[in-house]
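Bit of a strange request maybe. I'm writing a small parser for structure token strings and I need a real example to test against, not something I typed by hand. Could someone generate the tokens for this chain?
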Amino acid sequence: MISLPPVIGHRGAAALAPENTLAGFRRAAAEGVAWVEFDTRLAADGPVVLHDPTLDRTSSGRGPVRALPVAALAGIDCGRWFGPAFAGETLPTLAQALAAIAELGLGANVELKADPGLEADLARDATEAVRAVGPAPGRLLFSSFSQPALAALADLVPEIPRGLLVGELPPDWREAAERLGCVSVHPDHRKLTPAGARAVKDAGYLLAAYTVNAPAEARRLLSWGVDSIITDRPDLMRDLR
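Reply from user aminoacidic:
Good idea to test on real output. This should exercise your parser:
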């Protein structure tokens, strides 16, 4: 089974640099994390690294990312909204992000943000990017809230580990994780209980809780058996690694 580090940088290091950017990955590496988590979704002709379905919140662009080809996205500024020091930061393709992760020596938890009806397309394009540029085996985990996307990944690349993202643990979480061949479960830390954590660990799954930015809360979750804390503030979690 894959192992996960105690601290994973959320969208790179989302409180310290623009989320889902190469600058964010570099900052996460500078803070000493071993892995980062980031999002990928489909533009008109391939996967890019972006959380929202629209460009509005985290870039100078506007409208749905699905409406634009990758070439048209290359000139969009994804850093100035965060701060002037990051002006000119671009929107990475998934391949560019994976290449940067490999160069930095990081592991990657790649979350698939699948549009309805395009789950298999995103899974296919994501696996093609991984095959082209890495990262190394044992340093990659796919995760998603979308069970169709996870099922497509299981068909395409059963050898790459998968994680089931949830808010609160649903009653059928174990059935879903087993059916999809997942190795990990990723709940919202605010909705996780000690009993829920114990159930996940007793069932043999890795447990990664998101998004934890207070060190005291991180320590409490680790004491419950949580394997990984996904955080915007890796700078505050140095003594947990």
